[in-house]
Design goal:
9 strands, single chain, mainly alpha, Glycosyltransferase, three-stranded antiparallel β-sheet, two-stranded antiparallel ribbon, about 450 residues
Length: about 450
Protein backbone atom coordinates (compact mmCIF):
# COMPACT_ATOMS: atom_id res chain seq x y z
CA UNK A 1 0.00 0.00 0.00
CA UNK A 2 1.16 3.52 -0.77
CA UNK A 3 0.12 5.28 2.43
CA UNK A 4 -1.03 8.87 1.98
CA UNK A 5 0.18 10.77 5.04
CA UNK A 6 -1.61 13.97 4.04
CA UNK A 7 -5.14 12.63 4.45
CA UNK A 8 -7.29 13.62 7.43
CA UNK A 9 -10.69 12.50 8.61
CA UNK A 10 -11.93 16.08 8.22
CA UNK A 11 -10.67 16.17 4.64
CA UNK A 12 -12.87 13.18 3.79
CA UNK A 13 -16.11 14.89 4.86
CA UNK A 14 -17.12 16.00 1.32
CA UNK A 15 -16.61 12.42 0.08
CA UNK A 16 -18.61 11.10 3.03
CA UNK A 17 -21.49 13.45 2.26
CA UNK A 18 -21.69 11.99 -1.26
CA UNK A 19 -21.34 8.49 0.21
CA UNK A 20 -24.31 8.90 2.57
CA UNK A 21 -26.46 10.36 -0.19
CA UNK A 22 -25.78 7.30 -2.34
CA UNK A 23 -26.26 5.02 0.67
CA UNK A 24 -29.73 6.35 1.44
CA UNK A 25 -30.81 5.92 -2.17
CA UNK A 26 -29.58 2.30 -2.17
CA UNK A 27 -31.41 1.46 1.07
CA UNK A 28 -34.67 2.88 -0.23
CA UNK A 29 -34.29 1.14 -3.58
CA UNK A 30 -33.70 -2.22 -1.89
CA UNK A 31 -36.68 -1.82 0.43
CA UNK A 32 -38.99 -0.88 -2.43
CA UNK A 33 -37.88 -3.54 -4.89
CA UNK A 34 -36.60 -6.58 -2.98
CA UNK A 35 -39.07 -9.29 -1.98
CA UNK A 36 -38.12 -10.50 1.56
CA UNK A 37 -40.03 -13.71 0.87
CA UNK A 38 -36.99 -14.74 -1.19
CA UNK A 39 -34.80 -14.75 1.91
CA UNK A 40 -32.11 -12.38 3.13
CA UNK A 41 -30.31 -10.42 0.40
CA UNK A 42 -26.69 -11.56 0.20
CA UNK A 43 -24.96 -10.27 -2.94
CA UNK A 44 -25.86 -8.69 -6.25
CA UNK A 45 -26.11 -10.17 -9.71
CA UNK A 46 -26.23 -7.57 -12.46
CA UNK A 47 -26.81 -4.97 -9.78
CA UNK A 48 -29.82 -6.62 -8.11
CA UNK A 49 -29.59 -8.19 -4.68
CA UNK A 50 -30.16 -11.94 -4.61
CA UNK A 51 -30.12 -14.56 -1.89
CA UNK A 52 -27.94 -17.63 -1.41
CA UNK A 53 -29.03 -20.24 1.07
CA UNK A 54 -26.04 -21.21 3.19
CA UNK A 55 -26.46 -19.66 6.59
CA UNK A 56 -28.51 -16.65 7.63
CA UNK A 57 -25.71 -14.20 8.36
CA UNK A 58 -26.55 -11.06 6.35
CA UNK A 59 -30.02 -9.93 7.43
CA UNK A 60 -28.66 -7.97 10.37
CA UNK A 61 -26.41 -6.07 7.98
CA UNK A 62 -29.43 -5.08 5.89
CA UNK A 63 -31.40 -3.62 8.78
CA UNK A 64 -28.31 -2.44 10.62
CA UNK A 65 -27.50 -0.34 7.56
CA UNK A 66 -30.80 1.49 8.00
CA UNK A 67 -29.88 2.31 11.59
CA UNK A 68 -26.40 3.51 10.59
CA UNK A 69 -27.95 5.71 7.89
CA UNK A 70 -30.03 7.46 10.55
CA UNK A 71 -27.00 7.73 12.81
CA UNK A 72 -24.97 9.45 10.09
CA UNK A 73 -27.63 11.70 8.59
CA UNK A 74 -30.33 12.22 11.24
CA UNK A 75 -33.03 11.15 8.77
CA UNK A 76 -35.67 9.66 11.08
CA UNK A 77 -37.27 7.64 8.27
CA UNK A 78 -34.29 5.28 8.34
CA UNK A 79 -34.53 4.91 12.12
CA UNK A 80 -38.18 3.90 11.89
CA UNK A 81 -37.32 1.52 9.07
CA UNK A 82 -34.52 -0.09 11.09
CA UNK A 83 -36.62 -0.35 14.25
CA UNK A 84 -39.57 -1.93 12.49
CA UNK A 85 -37.45 -4.46 10.62
CA UNK A 86 -35.53 -5.37 13.77
CA UNK A 87 -38.74 -6.02 15.69
CA UNK A 88 -40.52 -7.80 12.85
CA UNK A 89 -37.73 -9.95 11.42
CA UNK A 90 -34.74 -10.38 13.71
CA UNK A 91 -36.18 -12.48 16.56
CA UNK A 92 -35.16 -15.81 15.05
CA UNK A 93 -31.55 -14.63 14.85
CA UNK A 94 -31.44 -14.14 18.62
CA UNK A 95 -32.13 -17.82 19.24
CA UNK A 96 -30.30 -19.18 16.18
CA UNK A 97 -28.16 -21.98 17.61
CA UNK A 98 -26.85 -23.02 14.19
CA UNK A 99 -24.51 -20.14 13.34
CA UNK A 100 -21.41 -18.36 14.60
CA UNK A 101 -22.72 -15.01 13.36
CA UNK A 102 -24.48 -13.42 16.35
CA UNK A 103 -22.11 -10.48 16.43
CA UNK A 104 -22.98 -9.81 12.80
CA UNK A 105 -26.76 -10.07 12.96
CA UNK A 106 -27.71 -8.94 16.43
CA UNK A 107 -25.11 -6.39 17.45
CA UNK A 108 -25.68 -4.68 14.10
CA UNK A 109 -29.39 -4.27 14.88
CA UNK A 110 -30.35 -4.54 18.56
CA UNK A 111 -26.86 -3.40 19.52
CA UNK A 112 -26.87 -0.29 17.35
CA UNK A 113 -30.30 0.69 18.65
CA UNK A 114 -29.22 0.27 22.27
CA UNK A 115 -26.08 2.30 21.53
CA UNK A 116 -28.15 5.13 20.10
CA UNK A 117 -30.31 5.17 23.23
CA UNK A 118 -27.21 5.18 25.45
CA UNK A 119 -25.83 8.12 23.45
CA UNK A 120 -29.08 10.05 23.80
CA UNK A 121 -29.65 10.00 20.05
CA UNK A 122 -33.06 8.39 20.46
CA UNK A 123 -35.45 8.98 23.40
CA UNK A 124 -35.07 6.93 26.54
CA UNK A 125 -37.82 4.34 26.84
CA UNK A 126 -37.71 1.72 29.57
CA UNK A 127 -39.53 -1.03 27.71
CA UNK A 128 -37.71 -0.39 24.47
CA UNK A 129 -34.40 -0.56 26.34
CA UNK A 130 -35.45 -3.80 28.02
CA UNK A 131 -36.35 -5.25 24.62
CA UNK A 132 -32.90 -4.51 23.17
CA UNK A 133 -31.12 -5.69 26.29
CA UNK A 134 -32.89 -9.04 26.61
CA UNK A 135 -32.23 -9.74 22.92
CA UNK A 136 -28.53 -9.01 23.35
CA UNK A 137 -28.27 -11.03 26.56
CA UNK A 138 -29.87 -14.05 24.90
CA UNK A 139 -27.79 -13.66 21.74
CA UNK A 140 -24.52 -13.65 23.67
CA UNK A 141 -25.44 -16.82 25.55
CA UNK A 142 -26.65 -18.62 22.43
CA UNK A 143 -23.39 -17.74 20.68
CA UNK A 144 -21.33 -18.93 23.65
CA UNK A 145 -23.11 -22.29 23.60
CA UNK A 146 -21.31 -23.25 20.35
CA UNK A 147 -18.25 -24.26 22.32
CA UNK A 148 -15.37 -26.70 21.84
CA UNK A 149 -13.20 -27.12 24.91
CA UNK A 150 -9.42 -27.30 24.54
CA UNK A 151 -6.92 -28.10 27.32
CA UNK A 152 -6.00 -24.42 27.65
CA UNK A 153 -9.30 -22.82 26.70
CA UNK A 154 -11.51 -23.37 23.68
CA UNK A 155 -13.37 -21.66 20.86
CA UNK A 156 -16.78 -20.90 19.40
CA UNK A 157 -17.02 -23.41 16.59
CA UNK A 158 -18.15 -22.58 13.09
CA UNK A 159 -21.15 -23.89 11.18
CA UNK A 160 -18.85 -26.63 9.86
CA UNK A 161 -18.97 -28.31 13.25
CA UNK A 162 -17.13 -28.60 16.57
CA UNK A 163 -13.77 -29.35 14.90
CA UNK A 164 -13.73 -25.99 13.10
CA UNK A 165 -12.50 -22.58 14.25
CA UNK A 166 -13.15 -19.73 11.79
CA UNK A 167 -11.15 -16.50 11.72
CA UNK A 168 -14.45 -14.65 11.10
CA UNK A 169 -15.82 -15.42 14.53
CA UNK A 170 -13.54 -13.05 16.40
CA UNK A 171 -15.94 -10.31 15.35
CA UNK A 172 -18.89 -12.19 16.79
CA UNK A 173 -17.22 -11.81 20.18
CA UNK A 174 -19.07 -8.48 20.21
CA UNK A 175 -22.18 -10.43 21.17
CA UNK A 176 -20.48 -11.99 24.20
CA UNK A 177 -18.95 -8.68 25.25
CA UNK A 178 -22.23 -6.76 25.28
CA UNK A 179 -24.12 -9.59 27.00
CA UNK A 180 -21.40 -9.74 29.67
CA UNK A 181 -21.64 -6.01 30.26
CA UNK A 182 -25.40 -6.39 30.66
CA UNK A 183 -24.81 -8.90 33.44
CA UNK A 184 -25.59 -12.08 31.50
CA UNK A 185 -23.75 -15.40 31.58
CA UNK A 186 -24.07 -18.79 29.92
CA UNK A 187 -26.12 -21.26 31.96
CA UNK A 188 -25.58 -24.96 31.25
CA UNK A 189 -26.65 -28.33 32.63
CA UNK A 190 -27.26 -28.48 36.39
CA UNK A 191 -27.31 -24.68 36.42
CA UNK A 192 -23.58 -24.51 35.74
CA UNK A 193 -22.73 -20.87 35.10
CA UNK A 194 -19.97 -19.90 32.69
CA UNK A 195 -18.65 -16.37 32.26
CA UNK A 196 -19.15 -14.90 28.80
CA UNK A 197 -15.99 -12.87 29.34
CA UNK A 198 -14.12 -16.12 29.90
CA UNK A 199 -15.36 -17.54 26.61
CA UNK A 200 -14.58 -14.30 24.84
CA UNK A 201 -10.97 -14.28 26.05
CA UNK A 202 -10.43 -17.98 25.39
CA UNK A 203 -11.82 -17.75 21.87
CA UNK A 204 -9.67 -14.70 21.11
CA UNK A 205 -6.59 -16.56 22.42
CA UNK A 206 -7.36 -19.62 20.26
CA UNK A 207 -7.71 -17.36 17.22
CA UNK A 208 -4.41 -15.68 18.02
CA UNK A 209 -2.64 -19.00 18.57
CA UNK A 210 -3.97 -20.98 15.62
CA UNK A 211 -5.45 -18.70 12.95
CA UNK A 212 -2.70 -16.07 12.78
CA UNK A 213 0.98 -16.62 11.98
CA UNK A 214 3.89 -14.58 13.29
CA UNK A 215 6.94 -15.67 11.32
CA UNK A 216 7.93 -18.07 14.07
CA UNK A 217 8.29 -21.23 11.98
CA UNK A 218 4.96 -22.97 12.49
CA UNK A 219 5.13 -24.15 8.89
CA UNK A 220 7.17 -23.51 5.76
CA UNK A 221 4.92 -20.59 4.73
CA UNK A 222 4.84 -18.89 8.12
CA UNK A 223 4.84 -15.12 7.55
CA UNK A 224 4.13 -12.26 9.97
CA UNK A 225 0.36 -11.76 9.78
CA UNK A 226 -0.57 -14.56 7.42
CA UNK A 227 -4.04 -15.76 8.41
CA UNK A 228 -5.80 -19.08 7.96
CA UNK A 229 -9.54 -18.93 7.41
CA UNK A 230 -10.18 -22.18 9.28
CA UNK A 231 -8.27 -24.12 11.93
CA UNK A 232 -9.00 -27.85 12.29
CA UNK A 233 -8.87 -29.82 15.53
CA UNK A 234 -9.03 -33.52 16.33
CA UNK A 235 -11.88 -33.79 18.80
CA UNK A 236 -10.72 -37.19 20.08
CA UNK A 237 -7.67 -35.67 21.75
CA UNK A 238 -8.36 -31.93 21.28
CA UNK A 239 -5.12 -31.41 19.36
CA UNK A 240 -4.73 -28.85 16.59
CA UNK A 241 -4.21 -30.61 13.27
CA UNK A 242 -3.93 -28.16 10.37
CA UNK A 243 -5.03 -24.93 8.72
CA UNK A 244 -7.81 -25.02 6.15
CA UNK A 245 -9.80 -22.60 4.02
CA UNK A 246 -13.48 -22.67 3.12
CA UNK A 247 -13.57 -19.53 1.01
CA UNK A 248 -9.92 -18.82 0.29
CA UNK A 249 -7.64 -20.45 -2.26
CA UNK A 250 -5.68 -22.71 0.09
CA UNK A 251 -4.80 -23.28 3.74
CA UNK A 252 -1.38 -21.75 3.11
CA UNK A 253 -2.46 -18.54 1.43
CA UNK A 254 -4.39 -15.69 2.99
CA UNK A 255 -8.04 -15.13 2.13
CA UNK A 256 -8.16 -11.39 2.64
CA UNK A 257 -11.70 -11.17 4.02
CA UNK A 258 -10.74 -13.65 6.74
CA UNK A 259 -7.69 -11.51 7.44
CA UNK A 260 -9.92 -8.43 7.64
CA UNK A 261 -12.23 -9.97 10.25
CA UNK A 262 -9.23 -10.44 12.54
CA UNK A 263 -7.90 -6.96 11.73
CA UNK A 264 -11.06 -5.34 13.08
CA UNK A 265 -11.95 -7.91 15.75
CA UNK A 266 -8.68 -7.73 17.68
CA UNK A 267 -8.48 -3.93 18.18
CA UNK A 268 -12.19 -3.77 19.00
CA UNK A 269 -11.62 -6.23 21.83
CA UNK A 270 -8.63 -4.21 23.04
CA UNK A 271 -10.95 -1.20 23.24
CA UNK A 272 -13.63 -3.21 25.04
CA UNK A 273 -11.18 -4.57 27.62
CA UNK A 274 -10.47 -1.04 28.79
CA UNK A 275 -13.94 -1.15 30.37
CA UNK A 276 -13.27 -4.42 32.22
CA UNK A 277 -11.90 -4.44 35.75
CA UNK A 278 -8.52 -6.08 36.33
CA UNK A 279 -10.07 -8.44 38.88
CA UNK A 280 -12.25 -9.98 36.14
CA UNK A 281 -9.25 -10.56 33.89
CA UNK A 282 -6.90 -11.96 36.54
CA UNK A 283 -8.33 -15.54 36.51
CA UNK A 284 -8.09 -15.52 32.67
CA UNK A 285 -4.39 -14.75 32.55
CA UNK A 286 -4.34 -11.10 33.57
CA UNK A 287 -4.71 -7.88 31.63
CA UNK A 288 -1.08 -7.65 30.51
CA UNK A 289 -1.03 -11.10 28.90
CA UNK A 290 -4.47 -10.78 27.30
CA UNK A 291 -3.80 -7.36 25.83
CA UNK A 292 -0.38 -8.54 24.62
CA UNK A 293 -1.72 -11.36 22.47
CA UNK A 294 -4.55 -9.21 21.12
CA UNK A 295 -2.16 -6.41 20.21
CA UNK A 296 0.30 -8.80 18.58
CA UNK A 297 -2.52 -10.29 16.50
CA UNK A 298 -3.83 -6.85 15.53
CA UNK A 299 -0.42 -5.56 14.49
CA UNK A 300 0.49 -8.69 12.57
CA UNK A 301 -2.70 -8.81 10.51
CA UNK A 302 -2.72 -5.05 9.83
CA UNK A 303 0.94 -5.16 8.81
CA UNK A 304 0.26 -8.08 6.48
CA UNK A 305 -2.62 -6.18 4.90
CA UNK A 306 -0.49 -3.09 4.30
CA UNK A 307 2.31 -5.13 2.76
CA UNK A 308 0.10 -7.34 0.58
CA UNK A 309 -2.40 -4.84 -0.79
CA UNK A 310 -2.48 -2.66 -3.89
CA UNK A 311 -1.22 0.92 -3.54
CA UNK A 312 -4.75 2.31 -3.14
CA UNK A 313 -5.55 0.05 -0.16
CA UNK A 314 -7.87 -2.46 -1.87
CA UNK A 315 -6.77 -6.12 -1.78
CA UNK A 316 -7.24 -8.98 -4.17
CA UNK A 317 -9.44 -11.74 -2.77
CA UNK A 318 -6.56 -14.06 -1.83
CA UNK A 319 -2.84 -13.33 -1.63
CA UNK A 320 -1.79 -16.54 -3.37
CA UNK A 321 -4.65 -17.65 -5.60
CA UNK A 322 -3.97 -19.77 -8.68
CA UNK A 323 -3.65 -16.97 -11.24
CA UNK A 324 -2.12 -14.31 -9.03
CA UNK A 325 1.19 -14.67 -10.87
CA UNK A 326 -0.51 -13.33 -14.01
CA UNK A 327 -0.99 -10.01 -12.24
CA UNK A 328 2.78 -9.55 -12.16
CA UNK A 329 5.35 -9.27 -9.43
CA UNK A 330 4.49 -5.60 -9.03
CA UNK A 331 0.81 -6.28 -8.27
CA UNK A 332 1.07 -4.47 -4.93
CA UNK A 333 3.05 -1.59 -6.41
CA UNK A 334 0.16 -0.25 -8.50
CA UNK A 335 -3.51 0.53 -8.00
CA UNK A 336 -6.05 -2.27 -7.74
CA UNK A 337 -7.62 -3.36 -11.03
CA UNK A 338 -11.16 -4.77 -10.66
CA UNK A 339 -11.33 -5.56 -14.39
CA UNK A 340 -8.16 -7.63 -14.69
CA UNK A 341 -8.08 -11.06 -16.36
CA UNK A 342 -6.50 -13.09 -13.54
CA UNK A 343 -8.01 -12.84 -10.03
CA UNK A 344 -10.77 -10.66 -8.54
CA UNK A 345 -10.53 -7.75 -6.14
CA UNK A 346 -12.50 -8.01 -2.89
CA UNK A 347 -13.62 -4.56 -1.83
CA UNK A 348 -15.55 -6.07 1.09
CA UNK A 349 -12.24 -7.09 2.68
CA UNK A 350 -11.20 -3.44 2.49
CA UNK A 351 -14.55 -2.27 3.92
CA UNK A 352 -14.03 -4.55 6.93
CA UNK A 353 -10.27 -4.14 7.33
CA UNK A 354 -10.21 -0.35 7.09
CA UNK A 355 -11.85 -0.04 10.48
CA UNK A 356 -9.23 -2.34 11.97
CA UNK A 357 -6.45 -0.08 10.70
CA UNK A 358 -8.18 3.01 12.07
CA UNK A 359 -9.02 1.49 15.47
CA UNK A 360 -5.53 0.09 15.94
CA UNK A 361 -4.09 3.49 15.03
CA UNK A 362 -6.23 5.22 17.60
CA UNK A 363 -5.49 2.59 20.27
CA UNK A 364 -1.74 3.16 19.84
CA UNK A 365 -1.89 6.98 19.74
CA UNK A 366 -0.44 7.48 23.19
CA UNK A 367 1.52 4.22 23.36
CA UNK A 368 3.34 4.10 19.99
CA UNK A 369 2.70 7.35 18.11
CA UNK A 370 4.74 6.52 15.00
CA UNK A 371 3.07 3.14 14.54
CA UNK A 372 -0.30 4.74 15.31
CA UNK A 373 0.14 7.25 12.50
CA UNK A 374 1.08 4.50 10.03
CA UNK A 375 -2.06 2.49 10.78
CA UNK A 376 -4.33 5.52 10.89
CA UNK A 377 -3.07 6.89 7.57
CA UNK A 378 -3.30 3.45 5.97
CA UNK A 379 -6.92 3.34 7.07
CA UNK A 380 -7.66 6.80 5.68
CA UNK A 381 -5.91 5.87 2.41
CA UNK A 382 -8.12 2.81 2.05
CA UNK A 383 -11.24 4.74 3.02
CA UNK A 384 -10.53 7.43 0.44
CA UNK A 385 -10.37 4.78 -2.30
CA UNK A 386 -13.38 2.86 -1.06
CA UNK A 387 -15.69 5.88 -1.27
CA UNK A 388 -14.13 7.13 -4.50
CA UNK A 389 -15.36 6.80 -8.08
CA UNK A 390 -14.00 3.30 -8.75
CA UNK A 391 -15.73 1.57 -5.83
CA UNK A 392 -18.72 3.71 -4.81
CA UNK A 393 -21.78 2.76 -6.87
CA UNK A 394 -23.52 5.90 -8.10
CA UNK A 395 -25.78 4.12 -10.59
CA UNK A 396 -29.23 4.48 -9.04
CA UNK A 397 -30.46 1.27 -10.69
CA UNK A 398 -27.71 -0.75 -8.95
CA UNK A 399 -28.85 -1.87 -5.49
CA UNK A 400 -25.34 -2.27 -4.13
CA UNK A 401 -23.29 0.50 -2.53
CA UNK A 402 -19.68 -0.72 -2.80
CA UNK A 403 -18.65 -2.34 -6.08
CA UNK A 404 -16.25 -5.22 -6.79
CA UNK A 405 -17.04 -7.43 -3.80
CA UNK A 406 -16.52 -11.20 -3.91
CA UNK A 407 -18.53 -13.78 -1.99
CA UNK A 408 -17.27 -17.32 -2.65
CA UNK A 409 -14.76 -17.55 -5.47
CA UNK A 410 -14.00 -21.30 -5.11
CA UNK A 411 -17.69 -22.20 -5.34
CA UNK A 412 -18.16 -19.97 -8.36
CA UNK A 413 -21.06 -18.06 -6.80
CA UNK A 414 -19.96 -14.64 -8.01
CA UNK A 415 -21.27 -13.05 -11.20
CA UNK A 416 -18.84 -12.54 -14.06
CA UNK A 417 -20.18 -9.87 -16.46
CA UNK A 418 -20.11 -10.46 -20.18
CA UNK A 419 -16.71 -9.58 -21.59
CA UNK A 420 -14.93 -10.03 -18.24
CA UNK A 421 -12.78 -12.90 -17.00
CA UNK A 422 -13.25 -12.52 -13.23
CA UNK A 423 -16.16 -11.36 -11.02
CA UNK A 424 -16.46 -7.59 -10.81
CA UNK A 425 -19.03 -4.83 -10.59
CA UNK A 426 -21.11 -6.45 -7.85
CA UNK A 427 -21.80 -5.73 -4.19
CA UNK A 428 -22.38 -7.69 -0.98
CA UNK A 429 -24.52 -6.97 2.05
CA UNK A 430 -21.55 -7.30 4.43
CA UNK A 431 -19.38 -5.06 2.26
CA UNK A 432 -22.06 -2.38 2.11
CA UNK A 433 -22.74 -2.53 5.86
CA UNK A 434 -19.10 -2.36 6.88
CA UNK A 435 -18.43 0.50 4.50
CA UNK A 436 -21.24 2.37 6.25
CA UNK A 437 -19.86 1.47 9.67
CA UNK A 438 -16.37 2.65 8.68
CA UNK A 439 -17.79 5.84 7.14
CA UNK A 440 -19.66 6.59 10.37
CA UNK A 441 -16.48 5.93 12.34
CA UNK A 442 -14.49 8.43 10.24
CA UNK A 443 -17.31 10.98 10.24
CA UNK A 444 -17.47 10.94 14.02
CA UNK A 445 -13.71 11.40 14.27
CA UNK A 446 -13.87 14.30 11.83
CA UNK A 447 -16.70 16.03 13.67
CA UNK A 448 -15.32 15.29 17.15
CA UNK A 449 -18.49 13.36 17.98
CA UNK A 450 -18.77 10.48 20.49
CA UNK A 451 -16.38 7.65 19.65
CA UNK A 452 -18.10 4.84 17.75
CA UNK A 453 -18.03 1.64 19.80
CA UNK A 454 -20.12 -1.50 20.03
CA UNK A 455 -19.88 -1.91 23.81
CA UNK A 456 -21.72 -0.04 26.55
Amino acid sequence: MDINNNLTATGLLPDLERFWKASGQKINHLNQNYDPANGSPVFTIEGQYTTRGWTEWTQGFQYGSEILQFDATGDASFLEMGKKNTVDKMATHVSHFGVHDHGFNNVSTYGNLLRLMNEGRIPENEWERNFYEIALKASGSVQARRWTTLPDGGYIYSFNGPHSLFADTIRSLRALAVAHQLGSSFMGENDKETSLLERLVYHAKSTADFAVYYGEGRDYYDLWGRTAHESIFNLNDCNYRCPNSQQGFSPFTTWTRGLAWVMVGAPEQLEFLSTVDDTELEPLGGREAIEAFLLKMAKATCDFYIENTATDGIPYWDTGALNTHKLGEDVNERESDPFNDAEPIDSSAAAIGVQGLLRLGRYLQDKEPEAAKRYMQAGLTTMKTLIGDTYLSLDESHQGLILHSVYHRPNGWDHIPEGQVVPCGESSMWGDYHAREAALYVQRLANDEPYLKFYL
